[in-house]
Amino acid sequence: MRRDFTLLGRDVRAVLGWVGRRRALVELPGALSHASPTDVRFVTQDVARFYAAFDEARRTRNFPAAFRSLYLASGSPGLREFAHRRPQGFANLGAIVRARRAFYETAREQVLSLAEDDAWKARALSAFRDLHARLPRARFPDVHLVVGGLFTGGTAGLSGLFLSAEFFADAADTRSLSAWERAAITSGDALPFLAAHELVHTLQRRSYSSVSSPSLLDLTIYEGTADFVASVVSDQAPRGAHHTFGRAHEADVWRAFRRDLLKSSVRDWLYQGPNARGVPADLGYFVGERIARSYFERTGDFAGLFDVSDPLALLRASGYDP
Ligand SMILES: [Zn+2]
Question: What does pTM read for this prediction?
Fold first, then answer.
Protein backbone atom coordinates (compact mmCIF):
# COMPACT_ATOMS: atom_id res chain seq x y z
CA MET A 1 0.00 0.00 0.00
CA ARG A 2 1.64 3.19 1.01
CA ARG A 3 5.18 4.08 0.09
CA ASP A 4 7.31 3.16 3.04
CA PHE A 5 9.90 0.65 2.02
CA THR A 6 12.54 2.90 0.59
CA LEU A 7 15.95 1.75 1.68
CA LEU A 8 17.54 3.96 4.26
CA GLY A 9 20.88 3.49 5.95
CA ARG A 10 19.20 2.24 9.10
CA ASP A 11 17.20 -0.29 7.04
CA VAL A 12 20.34 -1.68 5.51
CA ARG A 13 22.01 -1.97 8.90
CA ALA A 14 18.93 -3.56 10.44
CA VAL A 15 18.54 -6.06 7.65
CA LEU A 16 22.21 -6.95 7.75
CA GLY A 17 21.64 -7.65 11.42
CA TRP A 18 18.60 -9.82 10.76
CA VAL A 19 19.95 -11.93 8.01
CA GLY A 20 23.31 -12.17 9.73
CA ARG A 21 25.49 -14.83 8.19
CA ARG A 22 22.65 -16.67 6.54
CA ARG A 23 22.77 -14.94 3.21
CA ALA A 24 24.99 -12.51 1.35
CA LEU A 25 23.32 -9.26 0.37
CA VAL A 26 24.64 -8.93 -3.12
CA GLU A 27 21.83 -6.87 -4.46
CA LEU A 28 19.11 -5.05 -2.55
CA PRO A 29 16.26 -5.76 -2.41
CA GLY A 30 16.50 -8.49 -5.05
CA ALA A 31 18.90 -10.54 -2.95
CA LEU A 32 16.07 -11.83 -0.82
CA SER A 33 13.75 -12.68 -3.71
CA HIS A 34 13.57 -15.51 -6.21
CA ALA A 35 13.96 -15.70 -9.98
CA SER A 36 10.93 -17.96 -10.23
CA PRO A 37 7.54 -17.80 -8.48
CA THR A 38 7.88 -21.54 -7.83
CA ASP A 39 10.46 -20.78 -5.12
CA VAL A 40 8.29 -18.29 -3.22
CA ARG A 41 7.67 -19.31 0.39
CA PHE A 42 4.58 -18.36 2.37
CA VAL A 43 5.63 -17.62 5.93
CA THR A 44 2.55 -17.79 8.16
CA GLN A 45 3.65 -19.00 11.60
CA ASP A 46 3.45 -15.50 13.11
CA VAL A 47 -0.35 -15.74 12.93
CA ALA A 48 -0.51 -18.57 15.50
CA ARG A 49 2.08 -16.73 17.62
CA PHE A 50 -0.16 -13.70 17.64
CA TYR A 51 -3.04 -15.71 19.08
CA ALA A 52 -0.82 -17.40 21.65
CA ALA A 53 0.15 -13.90 22.79
CA PHE A 54 -3.51 -12.85 22.70
CA ASP A 55 -4.52 -15.72 24.99
CA GLU A 56 -1.69 -14.97 27.38
CA ALA A 57 -2.66 -11.27 27.37
CA ARG A 58 -6.23 -12.11 28.30
CA ARG A 59 -5.05 -14.44 31.05
CA THR A 60 -2.55 -12.03 32.59
CA ARG A 61 -4.42 -8.85 31.60
CA ASN A 62 -1.07 -7.46 30.52
CA PHE A 63 -1.43 -6.99 26.77
CA PRO A 64 1.79 -5.01 26.13
CA ALA A 65 3.99 -7.55 27.93
CA ALA A 66 2.36 -10.56 26.28
CA PHE A 67 2.68 -9.15 22.77
CA ARG A 68 6.23 -8.00 23.38
CA SER A 69 7.50 -11.33 24.65
CA LEU A 70 5.33 -13.92 22.88
CA TYR A 71 4.81 -12.21 19.54
CA LEU A 72 7.36 -9.56 18.65
CA ALA A 73 10.43 -10.90 20.43
CA SER A 74 9.90 -14.45 19.16
CA GLY A 75 8.47 -13.57 15.74
CA SER A 76 9.93 -14.43 12.35
CA PRO A 77 12.60 -12.12 10.89
CA GLY A 78 9.87 -10.89 8.53
CA LEU A 79 7.62 -9.89 11.42
CA ARG A 80 10.51 -8.07 13.03
CA GLU A 81 11.17 -6.19 9.82
CA PHE A 82 7.48 -5.29 9.53
CA ALA A 83 7.55 -4.04 13.14
CA HIS A 84 10.66 -2.00 12.30
CA ARG A 85 8.71 -0.33 9.49
CA ARG A 86 5.77 0.50 11.77
CA PRO A 87 7.65 1.41 14.94
CA GLN A 88 4.96 3.55 16.57
CA GLY A 89 2.16 1.15 15.74
CA PHE A 90 3.97 -1.91 17.03
CA ALA A 91 5.12 -0.09 20.16
CA ASN A 92 1.41 0.25 20.99
CA LEU A 93 0.28 -3.11 19.66
CA GLY A 94 -0.80 -4.43 23.06
CA ALA A 95 -2.96 -1.37 23.75
CA ILE A 96 -4.41 -1.40 20.23
CA VAL A 97 -5.43 -5.05 20.52
CA ARG A 98 -6.76 -4.60 24.06
CA ALA A 99 -9.08 -1.82 22.85
CA ARG A 100 -10.31 -4.05 20.01
CA ARG A 101 -10.20 -7.43 21.71
CA ALA A 102 -13.76 -8.34 20.63
CA PHE A 103 -12.65 -7.87 17.03
CA TYR A 104 -9.48 -9.94 17.38
CA GLU A 105 -11.31 -12.68 19.29
CA THR A 106 -14.02 -13.03 16.65
CA ALA A 107 -11.43 -12.75 13.84
CA ARG A 108 -9.41 -15.66 15.25
CA GLU A 109 -10.94 -18.52 13.30
CA GLN A 110 -10.84 -16.75 9.94
CA VAL A 111 -7.34 -15.38 10.47
CA LEU A 112 -5.91 -18.75 11.58
CA SER A 113 -7.55 -20.49 8.65
CA LEU A 114 -5.98 -18.02 6.20
CA ALA A 115 -2.59 -19.09 7.52
CA GLU A 116 -3.41 -22.72 6.66
CA ASP A 117 -5.46 -22.15 3.53
CA ASP A 118 -3.65 -23.08 0.32
CA ALA A 119 -6.28 -21.73 -2.07
CA TRP A 120 -5.37 -18.04 -1.81
CA LYS A 121 -1.67 -18.90 -1.93
CA ALA A 122 -2.20 -20.83 -5.15
CA ARG A 123 -4.10 -17.90 -6.64
CA ALA A 124 -1.37 -15.48 -5.58
CA LEU A 125 1.25 -17.72 -7.20
CA SER A 126 -0.82 -17.90 -10.35
CA ALA A 127 -0.87 -14.07 -10.43
CA PHE A 128 2.91 -14.05 -9.90
CA ARG A 129 3.36 -16.49 -12.81
CA ASP A 130 1.20 -14.33 -15.05
CA LEU A 131 3.35 -11.33 -14.16
CA HIS A 132 6.51 -13.36 -14.83
CA ALA A 133 5.26 -14.24 -18.31
CA ARG A 134 4.73 -10.56 -19.06
CA LEU A 135 7.88 -9.29 -17.32
CA PRO A 136 10.65 -11.89 -17.47
CA ARG A 137 13.08 -9.73 -15.45
CA ALA A 138 10.73 -9.85 -12.44
CA ARG A 139 11.89 -11.35 -9.15
CA PHE A 140 9.60 -12.79 -6.53
CA PRO A 141 9.85 -12.22 -2.79
CA ASP A 142 8.54 -14.47 -0.06
CA VAL A 143 5.09 -13.65 1.27
CA HIS A 144 4.61 -13.13 5.02
CA LEU A 145 1.16 -13.34 6.52
CA VAL A 146 1.26 -11.54 9.86
CA VAL A 147 -1.20 -9.92 12.25
CA GLY A 148 -0.88 -6.25 13.10
CA GLY A 149 -2.86 -3.46 14.70
CA LEU A 150 -4.84 -2.57 11.56
CA PHE A 151 -1.93 -0.41 10.35
CA THR A 152 -1.82 -1.40 6.67
CA GLY A 153 -3.26 -4.28 4.66
CA GLY A 154 0.03 -4.85 2.89
CA THR A 155 3.48 -3.48 2.38
CA ALA A 156 6.82 -4.67 1.04
CA GLY A 157 10.26 -4.86 2.55
CA LEU A 158 13.54 -6.66 2.22
CA SER A 159 12.29 -9.91 3.75
CA GLY A 160 9.43 -9.98 1.29
CA LEU A 161 5.82 -8.90 1.14
CA PHE A 162 3.85 -8.40 4.34
CA LEU A 163 0.12 -8.98 4.36
CA SER A 164 -1.86 -8.22 7.52
CA ALA A 165 -4.34 -11.03 8.05
CA GLU A 166 -6.66 -9.07 10.36
CA PHE A 167 -7.83 -6.96 7.41
CA PHE A 168 -9.32 -10.09 5.83
CA ALA A 169 -11.54 -11.11 8.74
CA ASP A 170 -14.82 -9.92 7.29
CA ALA A 171 -16.86 -12.23 9.54
CA ALA A 172 -15.48 -10.67 12.74
CA ASP A 173 -17.35 -8.35 15.10
CA THR A 174 -16.14 -4.90 14.01
CA ARG A 175 -18.06 -2.80 16.53
CA SER A 176 -14.88 -1.92 18.44
CA LEU A 177 -13.26 -0.52 15.27
CA SER A 178 -13.35 3.03 13.96
CA ALA A 179 -15.44 3.72 10.86
CA TRP A 180 -12.28 3.92 8.79
CA GLU A 181 -10.91 0.64 10.12
CA ARG A 182 -14.26 -1.03 9.52
CA ALA A 183 -14.34 0.18 5.92
CA ALA A 184 -10.88 -1.29 5.33
CA ILE A 185 -11.91 -4.84 6.30
CA THR A 186 -12.40 -7.07 3.31
CA SER A 187 -12.62 -10.77 2.53
CA GLY A 188 -9.79 -13.25 2.11
CA ASP A 189 -10.32 -13.55 -1.62
CA ALA A 190 -8.73 -10.09 -1.97
CA LEU A 191 -5.36 -11.46 -0.78
CA PRO A 192 -4.00 -12.42 -4.24
CA PHE A 193 -4.76 -8.91 -5.55
CA LEU A 194 -3.01 -7.34 -2.58
CA ALA A 195 -0.01 -9.67 -2.87
CA ALA A 196 0.30 -8.74 -6.55
CA HIS A 197 -0.02 -5.01 -5.73
CA GLU A 198 2.84 -5.23 -3.23
CA LEU A 199 4.89 -7.37 -5.63
CA VAL A 200 4.63 -4.61 -8.25
CA HIS A 201 6.06 -2.12 -5.76
CA THR A 202 9.17 -4.27 -5.38
CA LEU A 203 9.66 -4.20 -9.17
CA GLN A 204 9.09 -0.51 -9.88
CA ARG A 205 12.01 1.68 -10.80
CA ARG A 206 11.01 5.14 -9.78
CA SER A 207 11.93 8.56 -11.01
CA TYR A 208 12.33 9.94 -7.51
CA SER A 209 14.68 8.96 -4.77
CA SER A 210 13.98 8.40 -1.10
CA VAL A 211 15.13 11.91 -0.24
CA SER A 212 13.40 14.02 -2.88
CA SER A 213 9.78 14.97 -2.51
CA PRO A 214 7.70 13.26 -5.16
CA SER A 215 4.76 15.00 -6.79
CA LEU A 216 1.17 13.86 -6.49
CA LEU A 217 1.40 12.53 -10.05
CA ASP A 218 4.53 10.48 -9.19
CA LEU A 219 2.82 8.75 -6.29
CA THR A 220 -0.48 8.39 -8.09
CA ILE A 221 1.16 6.55 -10.95
CA TYR A 222 3.20 4.52 -8.48
CA GLU A 223 0.08 3.28 -6.65
CA GLY A 224 -2.20 3.19 -9.68
CA THR A 225 0.23 1.08 -11.68
CA ALA A 226 0.36 -1.40 -8.83
CA ASP A 227 -3.45 -1.59 -8.77
CA PHE A 228 -3.68 -1.91 -12.57
CA VAL A 229 -1.07 -4.65 -12.86
CA ALA A 230 -2.55 -6.46 -9.85
CA SER A 231 -5.98 -6.43 -11.48
CA VAL A 232 -4.59 -7.82 -14.74
CA VAL A 233 -2.53 -10.64 -13.24
CA SER A 234 -4.93 -11.58 -10.43
CA ASP A 235 -7.95 -11.24 -12.68
CA GLN A 236 -9.74 -9.24 -9.99
CA ALA A 237 -11.08 -5.73 -10.38
CA PRO A 238 -9.68 -3.17 -7.93
CA ARG A 239 -12.03 -2.89 -4.96
CA GLY A 240 -12.95 -0.34 -2.39
CA ALA A 241 -15.05 2.77 -1.97
CA HIS A 242 -12.43 4.88 -3.79
CA HIS A 243 -12.67 2.78 -6.96
CA THR A 244 -16.47 2.60 -6.83
CA PHE A 245 -16.75 6.36 -6.31
CA GLY A 246 -14.12 7.07 -8.97
CA ARG A 247 -15.87 4.99 -11.61
CA ALA A 248 -19.17 6.78 -10.89
CA HIS A 249 -17.63 10.29 -11.04
CA GLU A 250 -14.66 9.78 -13.32
CA ALA A 251 -14.73 13.07 -15.26
CA ASP A 252 -15.23 15.19 -12.14
CA VAL A 253 -12.52 13.35 -10.25
CA TRP A 254 -10.11 13.86 -13.13
CA ARG A 255 -10.90 17.57 -13.42
CA ALA A 256 -10.11 18.06 -9.71
CA PHE A 257 -7.03 15.86 -9.86
CA ARG A 258 -5.59 17.70 -12.85
CA ARG A 259 -5.43 20.94 -10.83
CA ASP A 260 -3.31 19.21 -8.17
CA LEU A 261 -1.13 16.85 -10.12
CA LEU A 262 2.17 18.69 -9.84
CA LYS A 263 1.75 19.56 -6.18
CA SER A 264 3.92 17.82 -3.65
CA SER A 265 1.04 17.45 -1.21
CA VAL A 266 -0.92 14.24 -1.63
CA ARG A 267 -3.22 14.85 1.34
CA ASP A 268 -6.41 15.20 -0.72
CA TRP A 269 -5.72 12.10 -2.80
CA LEU A 270 -3.60 9.47 -1.09
CA TYR A 271 -2.96 7.94 2.33
CA GLN A 272 -5.51 10.08 4.18
CA GLY A 273 -6.60 7.26 6.45
CA PRO A 274 -9.48 8.54 8.56
CA ASN A 275 -8.92 12.16 7.50
CA ALA A 276 -10.71 12.21 4.12
CA ARG A 277 -13.67 14.57 4.02
CA GLY A 278 -16.62 14.39 1.64
CA VAL A 279 -15.09 11.82 -0.72
CA PRO A 280 -13.50 8.40 -0.10
CA ALA A 281 -9.82 8.35 0.91
CA ASP A 282 -7.22 7.22 -1.63
CA LEU A 283 -8.95 8.41 -4.83
CA GLY A 284 -5.43 8.77 -6.26
CA TYR A 285 -5.28 4.97 -6.55
CA PHE A 286 -8.30 5.13 -8.82
CA VAL A 287 -6.88 7.94 -10.99
CA GLY A 288 -3.52 6.19 -11.27
CA GLU A 289 -5.14 2.89 -12.17
CA ARG A 290 -7.08 4.57 -14.98
CA ILE A 291 -3.95 6.32 -16.30
CA ALA A 292 -1.93 3.07 -16.23
CA ARG A 293 -4.77 1.15 -17.90
CA SER A 294 -5.14 3.79 -20.58
CA TYR A 295 -1.37 3.81 -21.20
CA PHE A 296 -1.25 0.03 -21.55
CA GLU A 297 -4.31 -0.16 -23.79
CA ARG A 298 -2.89 2.51 -26.07
CA THR A 299 0.76 1.43 -26.22
CA GLY A 300 0.79 -2.27 -25.22
CA ASP A 301 3.92 -1.40 -23.25
CA PHE A 302 3.74 -3.51 -20.08
CA ALA A 303 7.38 -3.20 -19.04
CA GLY A 304 7.18 0.60 -19.35
CA LEU A 305 4.75 0.68 -16.43
CA PHE A 306 7.56 -0.52 -14.15
CA ASP A 307 10.10 2.04 -15.32
CA VAL A 308 8.50 5.46 -15.18
CA SER A 309 11.28 8.00 -15.47
CA ASP A 310 8.89 10.79 -16.47
CA PRO A 311 5.35 10.51 -15.09
CA LEU A 312 4.11 13.46 -17.18
CA ALA A 313 5.32 11.78 -20.35
CA LEU A 314 3.51 8.59 -19.34
CA LEU A 315 0.36 10.58 -18.68
CA ARG A 316 0.57 12.23 -22.10
CA ALA A 317 1.24 8.92 -23.83
CA SER A 318 -1.73 7.39 -22.04
CA GLY A 319 -4.11 9.87 -23.67
CA TYR A 320 -6.18 9.65 -20.48
CA ASP A 321 -8.84 12.37 -20.54
CA PRO A 322 -12.26 11.11 -19.47
ZN1 LIG B 1 0.76 0.42 -2.86
Answer: 0.89
